[in-house]
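User: Structure with (2Z)-2-iminopentanedioic acid, tokens only please.
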Amino acid sequence: MTNVMEQKVQSFMARVIAKNSGEVEFHQAVHEVVESLIPFVEDNPQYKEAKILERMVEPERVILFRVPWINDKGGVELNKGYRIEMNSAIGPYKGGLRFHPTVNLGILKFLAFEQVLKNSLTTLPMGGGKGGSDFDPKGKSDNEVMRFCQSFMTELQRHIGPDTDVPAGDIGVGGREIGYLFGQYKRLRNEFTGVLTGKGLEWGGSLIRPEATGYGNVYFAQEMLGTRKDSFKGKLVAISGSGNVAQYATEKVNNLGGKVVTLSDSTGFIYDPDGIDAEKLAWVMELKNVKRGRIKEYADKFGAQYFESERPWGIKVDVALPCATQNEINDEDAQTLIDNGCFCISEGANMPSTPEAIKIYIDSKILYGPGKAANAGGVAVSGLEMSQNSMRLSWSREEVDTKLQSIMVNIHENCMKWGTEEEFINYVKGANIAGFVKVADAMLAQGVV
Ligand code: NDP
Ligand code: 2IT
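Assistant:
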């Protein structure tokens, strides 16, 4: 980047930092995007004159609320509730809810900002939003989770709707939580509508939605490997996390002939050089989704190694799929991965790589799929769930999976279109510009709103 352009990025960021004080993850997400977009906007003055970038970093609306609830001992508990309605230029706000003790305004704004560009990349008509709470579902009974979800929805319901804002899951919000949230919405509003996605199959959910983020991430990685006439066959793969995204990424890698050798959670990671096959994965799903136990138990059960408080990036692999959380790969991890021969990193999580790690990927010219492209399969199938709900129809597993695959292929093509440089595809630049253009053009058409 030229010095002049670098200065423009710095002065844009200085304003963002001053106006959004202390929101470090939001600053990080915006910086990564404007590094690609400021040079593009300079070449396309219609966006500059209309201050599209400045408007895109300001949420259309931020909702903050109190969530009081009663624990099993009869004591009063209190959490914070949030919904960031970031951008509705191309459709109703759409994006997940995260329940995790680290949740704060800056984290949700980073996620909502990424979501706007991600949703645009899917080609479906969805704006961007994100929400959640600092509630920690770990160690809570089902009844406590239910009472929390009911209190959370009692306030949220007045702000959302199937044509307004359609939340879904994210960290700490899976099928159980979506069920309790949906039940309360329906009771308060007396409406059975597609106000949430990730619903159960019997009550408006879509086939393949649970699988979609993990499958989509592997489909995206497969497209990247395809540019080098390569595939997952015989590849060693490191996956982090052991939740929704990690589980279905593991399943799809297995189906495509690769071997997943790691999984993790917030306490450590397991290394199984024999591979986490279908049987072991079924055991992990039961452990995580039903018993809600720790990944360490895998090592005890299958005789694998367990590394307390460590992340899996020191293991020698060909492909890495970070599927846990933000900033889980730093520059040291990135360098270790590459030194060990890893040449493909596809992000199931949102912003799992630090800016320093991303610089190492780009300088090394490895295949690097940033989250907003690589994990867009989840929200894409949420979009398909919204369509099925509007039509009061449901599509077969094959139909939804075929649509998911073609959406991931299309996102990959769009990244190539906007991100191809000399002998290298810069997927960061490609995803940022491809996602931006559609939203920016819609904003231009709709005037100063
Ligand atoms: P889950 O809650 O199902 O699983 C999260 C996993 O990540 C768990 O193994 C969890 O471990 C681990 N984890 C969470 N926080 C941390 C942390 N601070 N440090 C280390 N490990 C952590 O969430 P999902 O699988 O749905 O989400 C994973 C990632 O994928 C997130 O970044 C999310 O934003 C992203 N994503 C999710 C989509 C979806 O459809 N669900 C769509 C697109 C992206 P533990 O149980 O110990 O907390
Ligand atoms: O980060 C994400 O894309 C999600 N958590 C899924 C959002 C959705 O609305 O399905």
